[in-house]
Design a protein that fits this description.
This protein is an alpha+beta fold and about 600 residues long. The protein contains 15 helices and 31 strands. The chain has an eight-stranded antiparallel β-sheet with strand order 11-10-16-7-8-15-12-13. A six-stranded mixed β-sheet has the order 2-3-1-4-5-6, sandwiched between helices.
Amino acid sequence: MAGRRDHVRNFCIVAHIDHGKSTLADRILERTGAIPAGKMRAQVLDDMDLERERGITIKAHAIKLEYTSRDGDTYELNLIDTPGHVDFSYEVSRSLAACEGAILLIDATQGIEAQTVSNLYMAIDNDLDILPVLNKIDMDAARPDDVRQQVADLLGSPPDEVLAVSAKTGEGVDELLEKIIRVFPPPPEREEGPMRALIFDSQFDSYRGVIVHVRVMDGALRAGQRICFLATKKEHEVQEVGTFRLGLQQCDSLRAGDVGYVIAGVKDVADAGVGDTLAGFPADGVTPLPGYAPMKPMVFSGLFPVSTEDYGDLKDALAKFRLNDAALSYEPETSLALGFGFRCGFLGPLHLEVVQERIQREYGLSIIATTPNVSYRVHPKGGGPPEIIDNPSRMPDMGTEERIEEPFIILHLVVPPESIGMVMKLLQERRGIQRNMEHLDARRMRLEYLAPLGEILYGFFDRLKTVTRGYGTMDYEFYGYRASDMVRLDVMLNGEKVDALSLIVHEEKAYEWGRRLVDRLKDLIPRQLFKIAIQAATGRRVIARSTVNALRKDVTAKCYGGDVTRKRKLLEKQKEGKKRMKQIGTVHVPQEAFLALLRATDEQQGRRK
């Protein structure tokens, strides 16, 4: 058994977006014979159409490989492919906790990026051995010597220890496999004592329930064993265990150091939370593995069906979707403008886009997503527990709260020196507070800012790419709540609030937002037979107004001859009719106008100067 443990390597690949992580995984699978030559395709481990189209990894994946080294020994390699976007950083951290080593992949044409540094620190926090690797050395724009020096300065190691590969052509991949078995240690032998396993992912199968992805830390796990999820205290009996190939491969048991899956009749993905500890039952006295944190949504948006008849279908679609995505939360919501829908919580803006697009594709539904917002913490006057507000329409009236706190993040940026002035101006507009600035090399500077989450999530990344000509990169981590002067901005049509258009904005920016919203609505709302007053208000104070003029029917067209008083009587009669119509008439915002307004709102937040 000791010999088998010595020939096991558990590792993952971490990289900034688009540095070639999935392509390198393809080459490793190809060189280890995991995929027959005739069945090879790009992004093998990315099995969603959306992942393949966008070129990103949304879900973590694991696969067991067998590699025969140059000295003739056969090694078992467990590769855990991790998501590459900052929205899924918690999943990345749990995947790292399931490994002993991490390949830090860096694009030789781009160099060190913001997320490269973030992933490195995350790997160091998990006490992993780091193997730095340069990718894309076959490209004309590659700067291997410069980037090697960047990596050496970051890690404090000699530049010649940084391996260079081309994931596209396969150059250097054989040397990388040899280095993996030399640099990364085998898992520790801890088969004695109570069983503990780290859950790093899960998926739902319609017939077998939740398939839990685990790394066994202590003891052994086998079919027929009673297990317990320590966070939820749910108890189950193991029906099947196995390892990951291109599919699931059943085996007798999983021992300390093994990566595999467990099927135990679990019906809800939320019961098998990522980062939770799986233990043998009874679990009295078993210490949970460190690092577990319940997934908390950071961004909230209302999802409404375009056709009210599709409400039941949307409800079923969200229920089915949540079986595979425990990070999604939703509850029923009613809007006067949009009808019945759901208030949904997401990990970040990319998570929102992925959920929205998958629901539209996989379930054939047309849906509207309202302007996303973050959650705020409102402390009432006179004490009492704070209330978490994730819907602008639920924000209490001004003067009833002692203070409002908004979520802040620590923002890490890597930008070219010539763009530093524009970037600092952009961050100042977004209420950022500078914490640190350092030169990485002659071509790159690293900035650290404290900034409000709501100002950064939407539009900021596009603006950053614009002012840095595509070279700026960013990463962020949650910091906490801080008191801010936030107000609710309401939009009113003829004195009636349109709840779906309410926003929570900083007091200094309320007029700017209000002015743009009313001007945009004036162009989108069709004219009626009466005037429509469009107002933006904070509390009882109207801060911006625009008017949609009434359609005027020419009631004097058939009035020939006679005194001018005849025409005047007809016009007065029309005027009185318009007054009555305004009192009883209602203004409806068409769905097309509403969709255009939401798109315009996102664009404004992106272009705001």
